[in-house]
Amino acid sequence: MVRIIRWLEKQKVPLDSSVLDIGTGNGVLLIELAKNGFTNLTGIDYSPSAIQLSEKVREKEGMSNIKLLVEDFLAPSAELLGFQICIDKGTFDAVSLNPDNAVGKRKQYVRSLCSVLKPEGFFLITSCNWTKEELLNEFREGFEIVEELPTPKFCFGGRIGNSVTALVFQRKGDMENRFLH
Ligand SMILES: C[S@@+](CC[C@H](N)C(=O)[O-])C[C@H]1O[C@@H](n2cnc3c(N)ncnc32)[C@H](O)[C@@H]1O
Question: Where does the source fall among the domains of life (predicted)?
């Protein structure tokens, strides 16, 4: 969370940018963003109990301006449109683990992302499942890598690796996306 917020601050992303947290869970990332001054925050989760929990956290923290919606990101409603920043912490991983047509669901995830994120908007993904190379491949159509965020490293058998991958992508402009879909 700290690295995501630090990156947004470093880029001087305006505090009123529209931010979508995909699969918000308990909504704590949105609370931290609000505490750091961000004012246009939306969280979605397809689990009604996750949204109920995040509503309780929002109430406890007195952050009533955070918008929380029950939404399946793989079938986003027309309301989810034009975000400047999309953040995913663990949700693409969850989608990828779905035993029922995971490949198709991953493709749908990328399509959904293209429909909710503005051209040239930023997508920040944190994954415990996928390496940098794998994520670059998943998001190769429509997205360009901007930066890899530092994550803890470990050493095993003389080789150094990361247990978490955190990348920032930028959605290509409309002209570059014209061959997509
Ligand atoms: C590993 S949890 C991460 C939660 C939160 N982002 C965090 O960092 O604590 C994944 C979340 O994604 C949600 N999720 C999985 N598939 C989803 C989908 N298709 N649409 C919306 N939410 C989804 C789950 O309900 C769960 O809350």
Answer: Eukaryota
Contact 66, 19 (CB under 8 A): no
For helices 48-61 and 28-35, give the axis angle rounded to 10 degrees.
Answer: 30
The domain in which residue 131 lies consists of 15-153
- Structural contact between residues 131 and 164, judged by C-beta atoms closer than 8 angstroms: no
**Ligand 1 pocket check: which of 45, 74, 130 to mutate, most ligand atoms within 8 Å of Cβ?**
45
CA of 158 to the centre of ligand 1 (A): 34
Q: Which of 46, 86, 111, 128 to mutate to test the pocket of ligand 1 (most atoms within 8 A of CB)?
A: 46
CATH number for the domain harbouring residue 115: 3.40.50.150
pLDDT tens, residue by residue, 74-96: 999 999 999 999 999 999 999 99
Q: Is residue 163 part of a domain?
A: no
- DSSP H/E element including 160: strand 159-162
pLDDT, one tens digit per residue, over 92-128 is: 999 998 899 999 999 999 999 999 999 999 999 999 9
